[in-house]
Write the structure tokens for this entry.
Amino acid sequence: MRPLHHGGRLREAACRYAIPLDGWLDLSTGINPLGWPVPMLSADCWQRLPEEDDGLEQTAAAYYGSDELLPVAGSQAAIQALPRLRMAARVGMLWPSYAEHAAAWRAAGHEVVELRADAIERMLPQLDVLLLVNPNNPTGECFTLAQLLAWRQALSARGGWLVVDEAFVDATPERSLAHHAGEEGLVVLRSLGKFFGLAGVRVGFVFAWPGLRQRLAALLGPWSVSGPSREVARLALADIPWQATNRAGLQRDSERLHILLASHGLTPAGGTALFCYCQSEAAAGLHEALARQGILTRLFHDPAALRFGLPGSDEEWRRLACGLAAVLTTTTQKAVQC
């Protein structure tokens, strides 16, 4: 697999635009800029091999509403391993979506079929696996629980899988399928990277029926999640007051970002509590112009679009507003089609 381009490549941007690292406003990742505050960790988590009876699984089960889980080193570990647990299959995926999924399944020899949302129902009988990101990254498109459960039932009846990546669902947990985990043919991926702002600890969870979890655990091997990462994850998942306050704050900030972008002619076509997605033929030019001011966005080419993450402070909000005002001249605004 060739490495794919992602947001957050700040050192690369700093070199390209000759702007020091501390001079950037990075809105390219969709990671919570006000993440869970990590405390001092115990010495044991650094000095001992990770142990499964440290309380992580039980705390995660309480948070997610299911104990049918396997901790993994970020959902990326599962994304790359899951395709190796099936024989050659026809895999349907929404497009555009998180590109690592398609790359991993293709690399493992599977056929990937790119789908529009309105084509899923019609194409489902021709698929062995349906893989969806819900809410979708980068468009923010969502599927209802009823839709997803019906598709899971149809697929599992003939040995198929429904795989749902819920990396951005924590702000709206009522949309999650995790509490249905254990049903044959359903695989749900969760991560601490986005909502908790803990992308660096590389902790995620796979929810699935016992047989698949056992095969995945055997493939990944022992100690797949480090001791410090397990401790951080356990503490963050147990912090219910922070989670409640954060959900409310993210919803407010998401609405604020939507209003700010729209006021500059970039009305979002979609998004989540952690980002806004704007389609525009002028996306590449806008991305470049903002980058020259030290504001990094996530650029997409097919279709042409920008994804804006949330600023984290009043100064960052002011800087984004000023940057948009400077870049989106009257001429530029006429070219924007969001």
Observations:
- The CA atoms of residues 151 and 207 lie 17 Å apart.
- The chain has 13 helices and 13 strands.
